[in-house]
Specification:
about 55 residues; mainly alpha; 4 helices
């Protein structure tokens, strides 16, 4: 009975599902883009010596 209830609640059949199932993919792409921009900004802010170079 519990699995039947979970199946009814978790099955992606609502009308909004076709519009929102791509949201995790969009979020992942936006996160990667944000990370790349932050990394480029960090590199531009401190040219030359990088923390990893000092550690080596």
């Amino acid at each position: 009975m519990l699995t039947a209830a979970a199946d009814l609640l978790l099955t992606p059949t609502p009308s909004w599902w076709s519009k929102t199932w791509l949201l995790p993919w969009y979020a992942a792409c936006l996160a990667a883009l944000g990370w790349a921009l932050a990394r480029a900004r960090e590199k531009r802010a401190a040219p030359g010596v990088v923390e990893w170079d000092r550690a080596a």
